[in-house]
């Protein structure tokens, strides 16, 4: 016996290899020898069917290639928009201590002259995700406030009733300023001297302080060293000269002066003699000099600005993780510098809401993609079956002449591969052209390519009998019944398995939601994504169980009716009953169902956005700022205004609940607030207004007597209403709230509605405006108040409040809705839902036409036989109609069930509140009109399919069909 290595060497010999290759070549020639000739002959004869298959596959390739690209582009656009909307809040800020270097003392603080260099050095140490979105760095140095001792050269009547802060004038800040007068101080290193320190002030700062260009201010310097005897020397002063007045350019990034709060707009000070604080900018060398000659101290902010245009949906999560890691351990960024650094950023507050919205919207768009893939696969298989049935007689002839199933399948596979390549090139090329970029290979594309490649060959072999069992049916009638019962049991088990999988997917979706906590926001659960397809398959199974009964009943009625149409209808219904398969009905059910659900979900989202606008804004127009009672009365009397109410808002007031404290918004409402609530409720619901008890409770705020007569009027508790959230925290109806620096005793007399978002996000306490003003001494007169909020509703609300600008910040409900709908993620989901309706309609039409043409040959033979006994040749349309009608009606009924099922069963788990912007999930809008419109479209598709049948029958002649029969 030879060793194993000897045997391997024998197999690897050139002679054996040559023999193996020759055998393989003979086998391939036997399989493919007739392939070119057969392919050419079949292509010339069946070119319309081949073109139809290629076009259908190309459409499916386009949809499955363009949809993922659209989803990813939408997600990336949403990430960029979210970061851009976050503005300076999304930046990474490094705080450090700044102090000038003293010749006699070494300080670990950063010298003002080195701050810009330190900021530039941060860019090279950023982690990879932050480096990918890095925009620029900005260095800011802000001093402690200092009092102005004297002013020279100021405007007439100006007095040093303000205090100063000093900020760093960097090269970037100097380039972002537009001068109104003077010359900017140089930012280059200058030798220290005893002359005035040149600064630049904003034009608003100049107007509020009366400091023109050239004005000189005196601030206190460091106190001199104390002497033991005699009078103490006076404290020296340092001169500050206004060298320039300007303002930021409109094109300048807002984050440049984000850390200089008093530069653009002077700060108003309350409770102090200097009532204004102004920030002026000076060079780094000037700040170093001020730090040595004055008692001011400095804080430094090194701001790393993130470029929103570089963000993607995947990168925003990585950036968030990097920032959180740096906040916990800043060594990778600032380690080894020797300076004290503290890192903080508001980026998590920007990314978290977006990531939540991204999870929901991405998963919802994936639901549409899975529906498109399922519908596309059904359409490809249906058209492939049409092509396979066209080749059925030839397959039988080839088998009769000795061809093997391998040879038949190989020829069909080569032809299918050519068609798939052409379809993929057309579909994917169109998707890449419209998307202005290459289409990445995805699992849906691979699945579609596999279906396009195998649909025709596999079905050709199946129709030819390649997969049938090679055994004779039993002759015994009881045995045949057992075989039929076993087949029925297998079908029942399969159907029950599909129903159980559908129930599990629906339960998972309702319980977990589409935005389940997956590793990345752009990932989805395959079972949840397949829920619409499984639901469509389940409904199709149920419909298939019912359709035979309906068709049988209709056939019995048609057979008994007088006239030829009834007889033909009965025959067509019986043929439809025999040929009722799952595939055409599944395609129509999925297409019609997903189109219906897309329409219903689009209406639900749109209606939910309107409801969310009432929750967020609270009225048609909300004006915040300097609004007086007289202006509010004038707005209320304007034409087109249903109601208007003036509310004094105290945000974040400390509330003593007896056992704990909390923060709440105190809403001091006028007598018109209850009318506003009533008008809003009528406009929102289109029906009745608020309940009578709510109206009575708000009336009690102004009319209720002091709750405790034993207390003096100044100490008696004021009646108030609290919102439901705060009501749950109460342990006693007596509470104390701090308003305008005074503790006010309150007594809760009832529960009011939750306040709209425009009145703050905290819990709310409602109190009468006049009673609170009398208690705390607040102004309830005609004087404008900066804490006033005017809510107006009605068609003329926007026109009535136009005169309040720019003194008040005006927000409209229509503007809120427009802004919400313009969000990339929200608009992308709605666009995809709307586009999917058309896509499903096109695929359903193609599937229905293909189903019609698949039975065209049998109907042509039957019609030719009928014509020999005198029937009209125009009855072909009736044969097609009665055969397709059960499928179409079953698709309409099943599709309506799928559409309503997706909305009603899956709707609560779709996290639609992430798209509406509301506080809770929107109410599902089930519009029968939308379903009826789609049903009409489905019947129109039936008409198109019957028309295709009529056109296909025009080329058939009775003699030709009867002579040739079923061989071609």
How would you summarize this macromolecular structure in one to three sentences?
The protein has 968 residues and is α+β, with helices and mostly antiparallel strands.
Keywords:
16% strand, elongated, 33 helices, alpha+beta, six-stranded mixed barrel, 968 residues, 55% helix
Tell me what the structure shows.
With 968 residues, the protein is α+β, with helices and mostly antiparallel strands. Helix content is 55%, strand content 16%. It contains 33 helices and 21 strands. Strand 14 and strand 15 form a beta hairpin.
Note the topology.
Layout: H1 4-11, H2 14-32, H3 35-45, H4 47-86, E1 92-98, H5 115-122, H6 128-132, E2 134-143, E3 146-152, E4 162-168, H7 171-175, E5 177-182, E6 197-202, H8 203-209, E7 216-220, E8 237-248, E9 267-268, E10 276-282, H9 284-293, E11 298-306, H10 313-328, H11 331-334, E12 341-345, H12 347-390, H13 392-400, H14 405-435, H15 443-464, H16 477-512, H17 526-529, H18 531-560, H19 564-578, H20 582-616, E13 621-627, H21 629-636, E14 643-656, E15 661-669, H22 673-685, H23 692-703, E16 718-722, H24 724-727, E17 734-739, E18 742-751, E19 764-768, H25 769-776, E20 785-793, H26 797-800, E21 808-812, H27 813-821, H28 824-854, H29 856-867, H30 876-906, H31 913-916, H32 928-953, H33 958-964
Helix pairs in contact: 4-12, 4-14, 4-15, 4-28, 10-12, 12-15, 12-20, 12-28, 14-15, 16-18, 18-19, 18-20, 18-30, 19-30, 20-27, 20-28, 20-30, 20-32, 22-23, 28-32, 29-33, 30-32
